[in-house]
Amino acid sequence: MSEAPALTLAPDCTIRTVRSLQDTLAAALAGAAHLTLDCAAVERADITFVQIVLAADKAARRRGAGVALVNVPPAVESAFRRAAIALPSAPVL
């Protein structure tokens, strides 16, 4: 496995960008067990973002690691809250 990649997310992480985001996460996880998502630029996020992050984390956990969210803005916190999924106090999901 390679070193843990960091991926900077785009401002729009909604259903409009779900295909691109899903492809980007899958490519970033290929060959890497752990992935850090820098959410600083995210201005819009919805339930599809939450679902994709959780699916990526599940795939990474099958390899013994996970997905970490860093620089979490209010838009991401709100998306998780609306999905009734609490953001953990530690950055790893």
TrEMBL record:
- Superkingdom, according to UniProt? Bacteria
Show the Pfam families listed in the entry. STAS_2 (PF13466)
Q: Which PROSITE patterns did the record assign?
A: STAS
Q: Note the SUPFAM superfamilies from the entry.
A: SpoIIaa-like (SSF52091)
Gene3D superfamilies given for it? STAS domain
Q: Where is the STAS domain?
A: 1-93
Where are the coiled-coil regions? none
| Signal sequence coordinates | none
Q: Under what name is this protein listed?
A: Anti-anti-sigma regulatory factor
Q: Could you tell me which species this protein originates from?
A: Methylobacterium radiotolerans
